[in-house]
């Protein structure tokens, strides 16, 4: 039997994008590009690297958990009392890439964070697709 008080939820966003994994990887791992679609940051794609994301509403403390170039990127996403993990998965397709983002770790009492992430990631994905369309 599971204890529902300790179960967590995930926000998942998946898209088919008409860009190669290598191009998407650049947008996910180059600090100046991350700033364009997500937030200001001091990101480096090195396991164990601690970095911050910052916006006018506050900051997110992060640490790179896993890096598999052009395939997987995972980092912790900690802000206030939310402790979560964001994982990006890139799967090549015949027309580009299946891009999947999962943010795991929303407790049942964190409905506001959960709803905010559902809205926020949709917006971030739209921004990311605009950056991808523009960069070489």
Automatic annotation (TrEMBL):
Pfam families (alphabetical): AHSA1
Domain Activator of Hsp90 ATPase homologue 1/2-like C-terminal: 20-132
InterPro entries for this protein: ASHA1/2-like_C (IPR013538), START-like_dom_sf (IPR023393)
Family stated for the protein in its record: Belongs to the AHA1 family.
Name of protein: Uncharacterized protein YndB with AHSA1/START domain
The organism's taxonomic lineage, starting at the top: Bacteria, Pseudomonadati, Pseudomonadota, Alphaproteobacteria, Hyphomicrobiales
